[in-house]
Design brief:
Order of helices and strands: HHHHHHHHH
Number of helices: 9
Radius of gyration: 18 Å
Largest sheet: none
Distance between the termini: 20 Å
CATH superfamily of the largest domain: RNA polymerase sigma factor, region 2, helix turn helix motif
Number of strands: 0
Number of domains: 2
CATH architecture of the largest domain: Orthogonal Bundle
Length: about 210
C-alpha cells in the first residue's frame, strides 16, 4: 500500500549523487539522523524503513486520503534528508517526525483542492500470518473504527491517534501539537468519552483499548 519513495529514497532524483556509505555502527534514531546530516544514504534508507509506516498512517488519519497521505509522507522524509542538521535532539526522533507530519498535513488541509476522505483508507495492513477469516474481521473492525474516528472533532481525533496508535506520552503529544500538557489531558478525557460512546453504539467498545 505504501509506495512513497523507492528503497534508495530516490537517490537519483532527490538525493545528491555524492551520498556516502554508512560511517559507523550507531543505528539508533539519533545516530541515523547524525549520519543523514552528513549525506549518508544508507542511514536515510534505514530511518525510512523504520518510520515510514507510522508517518504514513498518522498522515492518513489526519487527512483521510491515501494519495495525499503518501504525498505528505514523501515530503516528510525529503525534509529529513535536507534538514537533518536542524535536529537538535530536544525530543525523540519519532516525535520530531510526527511533528513535521502534522504541520504538512495541516498545510494540505488548508488547500482548496484537498480531496474528500476515503472511508476505506484506514483499514489495517493485513498480517501475512492471518487466516482469511481473521483478515476479514480486521478489515471490518478497521473500517468501523475509522468511521467512528471520523465523527470526532479534528482535535480529538488527533489526540486519540497520537496516544493510542503512536503510544505517545502526554508530554510528547503536547510537543507535537504545541499545546500545554493539561490541555492534552483535557482533550484526551473528552475524546475518550465520545469515542467510547461511538464504539459502544457500533458494537466495538473494546476496540480503542485494543488498538
Amino acid at each position: 500500500m505504501l509506495t512513497i519513495v523507492e528503497t534508495n529514497i530516490g537517490c537519483g532524483r532527490t538525493v545528491p549523487a555524492t551520498c556516502t556509505a554508512t560511517r559507523g555502527p550507531n543505528t539508533s534514531d539519533e545516530g541515523l539522523i547524525e549520519a543523514i546530516s552528513g549525506g549518508d544514504r544508507r542511514a536515510m534508507n534505514l530511518l525510512y524503513a523504520r518510520h515510514s509506516v507510522r508517518v504514513y498512517r498518522f498522515a492518513l488519519r489526519l487527512l483521510g486520503n491515501e494519495a495525499t497521505a503518501e504525498d505528505v509522507a514523501s515530503e516528510v522524509f525529503l525534509d529529513v534528508w535536507r534538514k537533518a542538521k536542524s535536529f537538535e535532539g530536544r525530543s525523540r526522533v519519532s516525535t520530531w517526525l510526527l511533528g513535521i507530519t502534522r504541520n504538512k498535513a495541516l498545510e494540505m488541509l488548508r488547500r482548496p483542492s484537498m480531496a474528500a476522505a476515503d472511508a476505506k483508507a484506514c483499514q489495517e495492513i493485513e498480517d501475512a500470518a492471518d487466516d482469511p477469516e481473521t483478515a476479514i474481521q480486521k478489515k471490518q473492525t478497521g473500517s468501523i473504527l475509522f468511521e467512528c474516528l471520523k465523527k470526532l472533532s479534528p482535535v480529538h481525533r488527533e489526540i486519540v491517534d497520537l496516544v493510542y496508535y503512536h503510544k505517545k506520552p502526554v508530554n510528547e503529544v503536547a510537543e507535537i501539537i504545541g499545546i500545554p500538557r493539561n490541555t492534552v489531558k483535557t482533550r484526551m478525557f473528552y475524546a475518550r468519552a465520545h469515542l467510547s460512546k461511538l464504539l459502544k453504539e457500533a458494537g466495538l467498545e473494546r476496540a480503542l483499548m485494543a488498538a
